[in-house]
Design brief:
The structure holds two protein chains of two kinds. Helices cover 58% and strands 13% of the residues of chain A. Chain A is α+β, with helices and mostly antiparallel strands. Chain A has a four-stranded antiparallel β-sheet. In chain A, strand 3 and strand 4 form a beta hairpin. In chain A, helix 2 packs across helix 5 and helix 3 packs across helix 4. The longest helix of chain A has 79 residues. The radius of gyration of chain B is 47 Å and the shape is elongated. Chain B contains five helices and four strands, in the order H-H-H-H-E-E-H-E-E. In chain B, helix 4 packs antiparallel against helix 5.
Amino acid sequence: MSQEINIRNIKFEFDQSLVRILYYRYKAFIVPSIVIAVCFILFITVIIGQLQEVISNKNVVQAQKEKLAILKGNLTLLSALSDENIDKQIRVTTTALPIEKDFGGILNGIGLAASRANVGLGDYEFQVGDLASKTTGGSGLPSLQLTIILKDGIIGTQRFIQELEKTLPIATISTVEISRTNSSLLLLFYYKPQPPIRINNEAPIKTLSSAENDAYNKYATLYTISTTANFVANPLGSQSADLFGL
Amino acid sequence: MSEINLLSQKEGVVTDKGKALRIVRLTAILFLLFTALSSVILFLLNVNSGISELDQEEKGLIQNLSSYQQKQLKFLVVNDRVKSILTLAEKNVITDKIISVVAQAVPSENFFIDTLVIENKSILITVSSPSLLNMDSFISALVKEAASKKTFKKLKLDNLSFSDVTKRYNLTLSAESL
């Protein structure tokens, strides 16, 4: 029994002395080792985190620069536009494609086309149907159907169609029935209610493509001719301006 | 029982320990320097990333843009409507072209277009003439146009008859536009 106790004591003394011996022998290594360990921990916890932050900041800066470039581009574009021009563009586009059913403009346009084509205009009939309903006419836009009778054959009808293309608002021809002395045309006059527009400053403002620009210029010329000749009045008048709170 | 003197060291061992100690100390210093320097550099990089300046610039630009908001709204409306106008403007071209082709195919005299119906893409033409030569000329002009695939996709002769009452040939053609 006493022998067992001795063995335990011997072991304890041996461990303590071993630690002590190791401490005295390697005590010069302790401080540098702690420094290395602390530096390593700092590297893992702080420096890598900071490095990630630097990389993320770089991406943020890049995105921010792109955003600024868009904003600057938009600002340059808008500041270069004159109020007069943009108001004219609004008038032209809302006359060509009215915001609502424009009966006056349609009748003016038909009368003008018939007069220019030297074609006698017979009966005409608006197929309005339910005033609240919308006929899309295959283009996704609501339209107003109008059947007109022309007192002329193919040549007169052709002249009328060519002249109708030069009047505002825009009409498309859905059905044509030409006989020797009379023609019946089913016309679709489109309008486009203005949907609410959300301004997104982060998106670049797209300018018109060359085809769109050509189309606009064509209708701007027609609009100028029409207004100069006093045939077509702006169907919206001050209403187009009211749309934008002016 | 042999004695183990842990404190006794040979000359070579001392040298090795000294070398190891020098390496460890050097490593510790290098680690320390690296950690300190990289911390300072990364901190400076983060501080001087320029995000705040860019944010300020963005705020300024947005403020400037807000004074053009009405103009921007009008510009977007114009763009939106011009796109729709362009789509509609392209629709009438084919109708005008069909009528023009049929009108041009008409021989100079004694030829009558009784009906021309254009509905969507389907075309129905009824003509009459006392001369078969005129009919041939009209059909040939339309066949030539259909062959060029500029206006018609299909051209079909539906009927050719002679009326004793009017003393005229009647021709009915149907076609499909492009």
